[in-house]
Each structure stands twice: as structure tokens, then as C-alpha cells.
Amino acid sequence: MSRPLESTSNIWITGASSGIGEAVTREMAQQGHRLIVTGRRQEALDELCTLAPERMKAAAADTTDRAALQTISGELEAFGSLDMAILNAGTCEYLEIADFDSSIIDHNVTTNVVGTARCLDIALPALRRTAKQGRPATLVIVSSSAWWFPFGRAEGYGASKAALTYFAHSLRADLASEGIDVVVVSPGFVKTPLTDRNDFPMPFLVSAEDAATRIVNGLRNGKTEIAFPKRFTWTLKLLGALPQGVIDRMAASMSRQSRKEQESNG
């Protein structure tokens, strides 16, 4: 268990301009937290900050750009002690195996893994200052449940989320002695501008608002692992526990069926 989210906290949220990040920002603002929000689109961030202008500040940056992140490090310092960082910025790009392109892998890994790591360059010192004061400090990393089963076309996305989750769990081990909690969020399918581009059925799809409520409630209850919706995540975990040969046959069958559906729809 991590320490529960306090009633009023200073929180940095990345990927805040749309999707899960925007919904979490709205939920946190409604609950009275002080927020610094980061995304690539300044206009969208400014609009978000109208929710509570006295408690919110926009700090636009591309999280894959180390120099851009350093330019907003002063914003974090001026914001005051940082109680929580919610590192949510990410992307999802699928690979067409017939036209293999390694840049798809590169973009997924750079955005989802390297971008998150670069955020820690400025988030970790701020969280350490809070922890040294004897106050709760929490790092939240938004991953995905997708990597629990080898879905076709998800070589880049799934691999990046597997790496991100391992990264978070290792951070949890290393930061425990410093009093910094690490929470991993593993959503299933969430309706966002990213998933709106998907051309396949998305079982147990939840809204971004529903996802935000589940995340915030999990943080308030001190959970270190927040995975939802349960029917989907439990199914994936059960499938992932099968013998590897069975998993391989199931994944290959699903991939062939997906290609046939795409061809018939095309």
C-alpha cells in the first residue's frame, strides 16, 4: 500500500491536454488540489486552467524533449513542494507487419518510456524535497494492461508498456528507502482521441471520465497497483498464465482473424 492521497496536494500531471490526463486533471481540480499541467498544446492547457485559475498553472512541453522539460523545471520549483507526479503522457501506434517499419517501435518507446524517464529528471528532485520533509511523496506512472498478452500489431506499443511497467516496479524498489511511493496504473481500453483511431473492437471500453474516477479513487485509497476494468484485466492475466504454446496459438489465431476482418472491411 502507498500513502493515501491527501485532501489538498500539489500535483504535476503530464499528458494533461487530452484523454485520461485531461479527465484526471478535471477530477483533481474539482477536489481542490493545486495542479501544474503539462502537454504539448498551450491553448488546451490554458483552457483547462480556467477550471481553477488560482490553483492551476500551465507548463507546456513535449515530454520527449529534454531541453523543453528543463525549461519548465523552474515552474515546478516556483509551484512549491511537489506531493505527487502523475506521468501520463504517451502514444499508441500499431505496426503493420507486412510493411514493417522500425520507426513505429522507436516512436512508441521514445514517447512512452524515454519521455517518462525524462520527466523524472525534474520530478524526482521535487519529490525528494517533499519526502525529506517527512511528507508523503508519490510517483504515479500510467502504463497499460496491453502488454499482459501478445496482441498482433502491438509489438511497439505493448513492448513500450512492458518496459514502462518494469521501469516503475524497479523505481518502487529503489525509492522505497527514500519514502517515495510508486503507483502503476494499468488501464484497459479507454475512449480517448488515441483509441478513437483504432479499427478493431475494444472490449469493456470505458470513458476517460470513468478511468479518471477509478484512478483518483485508487490513489485516495493508497493502492500501488490500479488496474481496470476488472473483467478485462483479470481475463488478460488469466490468458497470460496459460502455457506459452497455448498463448502463441491463441495470439496467432487472433492476429489472422484481425487481418481477415481488415481485408473484408477494406
Summarize it.
This protein is an alpha/beta fold and 266 residues long. The chain is built from eight helices and nine strands.
Describe the fold and architecture.
The protein is of the alpha/beta class and 266 residues long. α2 (42-49) links the parallel β2 and β3. The protein is 50% helix and 15% strand. The chain is built from eight helices and nine strands. α1 packs across α6, α3 (66-79) runs parallel beside α4 (102-132) and α4 (102-132) runs parallel beside α5 (155-175). The chain has a seven-stranded parallel β-sheet with strand order 3-2-1-4-5-6-9, sandwiched between helices. A two-stranded parallel ribbon has the order 7-8.
**What is the ordering of alpha helices and beta strands?**
EHEHEHEHEHEEEHEHH
**Helix count, per DSSP?**
8
**CA(first)-CA(last) distance:** 48 Å
What would the average pLDDT be, to the nearest integer? 93
| Main pleated sheet | 7 strands, parallel
| Residue share in helix | 40-55%
Proportion of residues in β-strands? 5-15%
Q: What does the radius of gyration come to?
A: 19 Å
Overall shape: it is globular
Strand order across the largest sheet = 3-2-1-4-5-6-9
Q: Regions with pLDDT < 50 over 5+ consecutive residues?
A: none
Name the structural class. alpha/beta
Strand element count:
9
